[in-house]
Automatic annotation (TrEMBL):
<dbReference type="InterPro" id="IPR036291">
    <property type="entry name" value="NAD(P)-bd_dom_sf"/>
</dbReference>
<dbReference type="Pfam" id="PF00106">
    <property type="entry name" value="adh_short"/>
</dbReference>
<dbReference type="GO" id="GO:0047560">
    <property type="term" value="F:3-dehydrosphinganine reductase activity"/>
</dbReference>
<keyword id="KW-0560">Oxidoreductase</keyword>
<protein>
    <submittedName>
        <fullName>Low quality protein</fullName>
    </submittedName>
</protein>
<dbReference type="InterPro" id="IPR002347">
    <property type="entry name" value="SDR_fam"/>
</dbReference>
<dbReference type="InterPro" id="IPR020904">
    <property type="entry name" value="Sc_DH/Rdtase_CS"/>
</dbReference>
<dbReference type="GO" id="GO:0030148">
    <property type="term" value="P:sphingolipid biosynthetic process"/>
</dbReference>
<dbReference type="GO" id="GO:0005789">
    <property type="term" value="C:endoplasmic reticulum membrane"/>
</dbReference>
<dbReference type="GO" id="GO:0006666">
    <property type="term" value="P:3-keto-sphinganine metabolic process"/>
</dbReference>
Length: 253
């Protein structure tokens, strides 16, 4: 199964700031010229953890920014791409959109939604030589990540520290490469590759080789994943016990 015609070397990439709010703000993008157009939908939202202190409106805003912030710009450009019979749409999800983690209940929900949008959209636009890429970047060394760490729960921080933080340049280079090649999944590093294979489900593949790799490695990767999950559960239990001991000590002090 091939991807059809790939992008040529000349590629115009429009980065869309979803914090602008109204769908109309992206409408001019559909009118811009260029043989090959790639629309990159990104979210400026770096942090919202589901805790009792986070208001419902904040959780709704997170879904609006991450999910609807991907829907609106896609609608703005898709008609023109179909008419030209060429184009790439890149959605930026997260590894938290492949794996639910402690502290990311609201965030993961909004990122998982992007996957469903991308899979359905890819099936709709593939006959028009338009291809969708979903990127699942890990923790990336950005100002937003640094700000996130200031309020991140201990459990979340300890789990996140089990993998290394990537450089923004590394992540950006891989996403652009995968988009140009027409890959549906864009993962970074060995952990990212394993997660993408484990969660492939009914997602489209770029080639027969990719599909065979997923089939062959599924058993091994699932075994490794079970050890990871056991480790994460252990971290959560230890933190809960430490918190309980601290509360008892405070009451008896």
């Amino acid at each position: 199964m091939g991807t059809g015609a790939h992008l040529q070397h000349h590629c115009i990439v429009h980065s869309l700031d979803t914090s602008l709010g109204l769908p109309v703000t992206w409408a001019p993008l559909a009118l811009r010229s260029g043989e090959q157009t790639t629309a990159v939908e990104r979210s400026p939202e770096a942090l919202t953890l589901l805790t009792p202190h986070v208001a419902l409106c904040s959780r709704q805003r997170l879904m609006s920014v991450n999910y609807l912030g991907s829907v609106y710009p896609s609608r703005a450009v898709i008609t023109t791409m179909k008419e030209r019979r060429v184009g790439r749409i890149v959605f930026v999800s997260s590894q938290a959109g492949q794996l639910g983690l402690f502290g990311f209940t609201a965030y993961s929900s909004s990122k998982f939604a992007i996957r469903g949008l991308a899979e359905a959209l890819q099936m709709e636009v593939k006959p028009y030589n338009v291809y969708v890429t979903v990127a699942y970047p890990p923790d990336t060394d950005t100002p937003g990540f640094a700000e996130e760490n200031k309020t991140k729960p201990l459990e979340t921080r300890l789990i996140s520290e089990t993998v290394s933080v990537c450089k923004p340049e590394q992540v950006a280079k891989q996403i652009v490469k995968d988009a140009i090649q027409g890959n549906f999944n864009s993962s970074i590093g060995s952990d990212g590759y394993m997660l993408s294979s484990l969660t492939c489900g009914m997602a489209p593949v770029t080639s027969i080789t990719e599909g065979l790799q997923q089939v062959v490695t599924m058993g091994l990767f699932r075994t490794i994943a079970l050890f990871y999950l056991g480790s994460f559960d252990s971290i959560v239990r230890r933190c809960m016990m430490q918190r309980a001991k601290s509360e008892v000590a405070d009451k008896t002090a």
